[in-house]
Amino acid sequence: MDLSCTPEEEDFRARLRRWLAEVLPGLPAKPAATDWPGRRAYDAAWQRRLYDAGYAEVRWDADPARRLILLEETERAGAPYVGANFVGLLHAGPTIAAEGTDRQRRRWLPPILRGDEIWCQGFSEPDAGSDLAALRTRAVRDGETYVISGAKIWTSHAEVADWCELLVRTDPDAPKHRGLTWLAMPMDAPGVTVRPLRTLAGSAEFAEVFLDEVRVPVANRVGAENDGWRVSMVTLSFERGTAFVGEVVACRRVLGELARAAHGNGRWGDAVLRRRLGRLSAEFTALWRLIQWNVSAFRDAGGPPGAGSPPGAGGPPCPFELGGGSVFKLRYSHARQELYDAAAEVLGAGALDAGHPWVADRLSSLSYTIAAGTSQIQQNIVAERILGLPKGR
Amino acid sequence: MDLSCTPEEEDFRARLRRWLAEVLPGLPAKPAATDWPGRRAYDAAWQRRLYDAGYAEVRWDADPARRLILLEETERAGAPYVGANFVGLLHAGPTIAAEGTDRQRRRWLPPILRGDEIWCQGFSEPDAGSDLAALRTRAVRDGETYVISGAKIWTSHAEVADWCELLVRTDPDAPKHRGLTWLAMPMDAPGVTVRPLRTLAGSAEFAEVFLDEVRVPVANRVGAENDGWRVSMVTLSFERGTAFVGEVVACRRVLGELARAAHGNGRWGDAVLRRRLGRLSAEFTALWRLIQWNVSAFRDAGGPPGAGSPPGAGGPPCPFELGGGSVFKLRYSHARQELYDAAAEVLGAGALDAGHPWVADRLSSLSYTIAAGTSQIQQNIVAERILGLPKGR
Amino acid sequence: MHFQLTDDQRALRNGIREMLAGWFGRDRLRAAVDDPVLDRALWRELGAAGLFALRLPEAAGGVGLGLPEAVLTLEETGRVLLPGPVVACQLLAGVVAGVADGDRIVGLCDGAAEPVLWEHPEDCDELILLDSPDSLEGSGGAQGRTREAYRVCRSPAGQVARTPWTSVDPLTPLAAVITTTAVTASATATVTDPSRGAPLVAGLDVPRLRREAALLTAAQQLGSAARTVEMAVAHARERTQFGAPIGSFQAVKHLCAQMLVRTEIARSAVYAAAVTGDSLDIAGAKLLADEAAVRNARDCLQVHGGMGFTWEADVHLHLKRAWLRAERWGAAREAEERLAAGLIAGEAGTG
Amino acid sequence: MHFQLTDDQRALRNGIREMLAGWFGRDRLRAAVDDPVLDRALWRELGAAGLFALRLPEAAGGVGLGLPEAVLTLEETGRVLLPGPVVACQLLAGVVAGVADGDRIVGLCDGAAEPVLWEHPEDCDELILLDSPDSLEGSGGAQGRTREAYRVCRSPAGQVARTPWTSVDPLTPLAAVITTTAVTASATATVTDPSRGAPLVAGLDVPRLRREAALLTAAQQLGSAARTVEMAVAHARERTQFGAPIGSFQAVKHLCAQMLVRTEIARSAVYAAAVTGDSLDIAGAKLLADEAAVRNARDCLQVHGGMGFTWEADVHLHLKRAWLRAERWGAAREAEERLAAGLIAGEAGTG
Predict the structure, then answer these.
(1) Angle, nearest 10°, between helix axes C206-238 and C250-276?
(2) Does the complex come out with an ipTM higher than 0.90?
(3) Beta bridge partners of A194
(4) Is CB count within 10 Å lower at the N or C end of chain B?
(5) Are residues A68 and A157 in the same domain?
(6) Residue A16: band (very low, low, confident or very high) from pLDDT cuts 50, 70, 90
(7) B63 and B73 both lie in a single domain
(8) A384 is catalytic
């Protein structure tokens, strides 16, 4: 067991830190949350700088240790978030890298790394949330084209995306996991309508996407027809590896801020609050260690199906597919909610101020036990896939 | 909504208090926990005094308000517990009263009230715990006799009981709830073997009862053959009415003791502990109010099938059968465990002393979320019977 | 002892429920979310129906009912998320002219809170602020110090200096009262033993007002908690995933069951506190009702999944209001300390 | 960074696991429950296998391994509920003659605790008591006061005055040390800055001993937590109710899943603290491992139902031992305060 970095890793970290210290002060001001084109431009420009400096590929590095360092250091330095590049870098890109043809990889991967093209995700549907495989958006083959109708929900950046990674039903008669297909849909195709979806936080971070006889070339299909479930699971397992690194770093920073704020406003004298913060400190430190543990296991298992793997290469099942990501997510989503409940205690009546950033984060934290697999579903996964308890009921 | 007592009730309470103040100082010392014959004699003698003073029948009074007062005042005065009379007074007696023939009621009820005969319960089996209806102890009819073989578990006072209320399978081919029969079995019948069962508290409060071709007259059957499930449910619903009154009174007393002990040993300065005790105070007060609420509802619904009802009288379903008792038990069992966890905090390292009464009670409190329907089963009952959520899964 | 609603109480509850269903249905609720200015016409209708005059003596033109009935009506307003200072108006109907009829709207603030938050400041005609002089003078400690002394400040709403506040609850606009000195203190008095005999300051029994504000707020929390159970159960019966209603899965069932348990425990505590009027009973009732409202709203959101996370669903309205109420008239930290002190004093009532 | 067991560490863990399975199987465990006198022959076998000399330098006849390996071995002893002062013997193998071989048994007590509890007093040949003079002199405050000064008391076991104690854990007899003045203090010294540079008192680095005792105790808790997950899962797969294994019901599944989550979080914390040796990392590891062991044992009992409530089941042995360990070398209240203080000091390590 080793928590220190290799000389190469230390070198990478030092170089990255220097670079961040150099470029971050010169960044323009962040655009407003409602300025979607501005946000796209800002996020894309940052991605381009990462690309030019040679850091973009690290997101897809077969060795997750460098990815971990990249995510840790950019968060710590206060660099821009992945933002509009999220789906391209974390979902669609790795899927195309692992399952696409050479031609598809050449077409779609470089623009993602350069920040030239933005992707969004069309998986969830109003009636297919926890039961994703029950999705009903239909794609009917018409020669070399699929004709697609249906509705998707919880799509981030839909307003400004160029592409949508879409999961559709191509065989309505097959068992529900077997009739799905993965497609890359251009967002400017006729028949695509985007409607913003307001969340309880008051913002419109997500959208609904309505599809009315949208025509997508068969050449945009990644993987075989009706093999989309397996193809999309590659994506999901990749996400669970290091997706939360930046957030855990941020949570630990917020925890320190809470302690200092409580110290400043007199609430530090409340032993119940103080000890709660102390416990959360142990919690987030352990979650950070669990990430390091999982990343190391991931590496031992041969890494995720990343950009470097040949198309279709399976490799051994990675620990995230086996539920390691579920263990992390179960505890992290809970700890994050506890963190912002503690923030509310620090604020007292100030927690009734929606303008306070901690209050906004408290509201958004409410989705953590729901999005990307509810805690109930995650517990099923842990119980069945790791502990081997019988399915059913 | 009225929490005050009627003049009659106040009068009953005052009379009872006077009587308790008079008789309790003269009681002999309590026998040792392992002295079963001594415990039986002690409990039976106390029951006889209650009987002679006219308080025994109150346990079966159609009006549960007087029962509530009786249980509250005896606990508060530190009177002996119901002890060995538990099953007779709370389970078997009410069942016989509601479902037995006149002859059966005349035979069995008076000795219970007088403390002359002690009953135990033979319902649970090693393989039929939560799924009680899956019990396998067989009774085969042989003329005017049932011949019974099987094993029962979690039987209190089996060593000293005269009778056992037994649930047996008389029709192995019927659906599991339909083939059961309720019998009164003499504990001195040939073929009955009692083996003490040691619990994690180190004591042997329970026993296993093995039955090897035990012969019980058909005349000892209460209710129809194969109607035993319904008959025994009458018993269970009665238990949930006021069974915990004394315990809640005791918990509130213990809570005050904890606060004073913490005040005395310096732990009161620990705000976490102090606030925990404050919260428990609200909790147990509310549980007490819930008992009063349930008892009042019980009375409005026409009372339990008690000694005063004609045999077989159904009446409207009482709130406990509808799950009101489950709501109480879910919260109470949890609160009781919290209480003794708080006691451990008050004691600090002293919680490692098995000789401390709070530690013994902490250990026994562990059974509360398991016995008489686990919290999981209780939650199913609440969800399905009160909230109307669909069965299955 | 008969700790159940009387027939009259049941009739009252049903009457209020029907009335509110008719006057403040879901369309009105969502309209209020978009524009939280109180509807004066509705307010007058509520006044005419006796909602504010409920506890005024019949001789004074009131309905002549008691605290238990007040609790039942406030519970119903909590169920439907009725916006506005209903608690204040019911408590002050006999003090401020026009409030009983719904013609005028009065706000009530806890001056011991930090900051002093004022609900619906733009809708109120008048503000009454309860304070103890030591916290008014800025020594900050609401806890313990000089509980014997009270000050009541009464002021036309327009004369109260305040700063705007971005309320977390879209149904409850807030402002922070800046300086109580800017409030015209129409009556100030110091009382040395207010606990017995109800000494009046500016015509108000301050400790009693605080107690009753806490209790009626708890009643609203109870109503919200009960409503979110119903919402969760309804969704769990309708929503199908994996080929079955999600309410058939134990995980969802058990969430719903615990929601009901919290509600019924809170109900026992709130109703009993309404009957006894005891200060510790009320502290416990507020504690349990706050917990039931907040945690039930959270669980209701979890049962609703993604759909519960939308602005269009009502779940968040319950959660945000529950958060707000939990901070008003005694938060958990304060209630728990008082209850703990009561254990030492041996005050925890029984019977 | 490679935060996974090395091949050597894996081999060590498997070796210890096999060894303990052979030497301390279930029969021996239940025999120890009935008679908790330590088995000297077994103790010598453990010594011969290097369990106590694990961290002694090879030059001193030890195995020359580090804290991570110590943690792995202690985790295994926690899994099988091995009785006896394994932590003390491993920490003091280089200090007290004969301990490394398992010939002699040494106890280690935290003199700052109240009361000072001594495990297996009748089995120990010697007792080492770590104390800070202020608590020795009865001023009571273990917290903060004079952390700069330490006293170590070393005494033959027979000369320690003690009162008997009815231990809640049948596998761990206890006694309360009455007066530390009755202990022959073979070395007493006051040190002003012990935090750096390991100043030795009676040959011992006291702060480090305390830290490592806490970490190794946490490792035992981790082993117990992991074992109770296995027990619960095995029972849930075998036990049938309502026509199906109970492990097919979500309620049981989710109990088991949360048990695993607690274990893996504790594992991350304990292993990382073993690598860093950092004082706050260790406090956090102890906190999370204590919680995992206690709550897992409780949930394991719940999954087992009535059968788990019997003396014959091993569940209670895990629970009682977990309770005991949770009170040793820093209970939750102390760890949480230290971690909170670390947040203000900005000491929470990263990387």
Answers:
(1) 160
(2) yes
(3) A209
(4) C
(5) no
(6) very high
(7) yes
(8) no
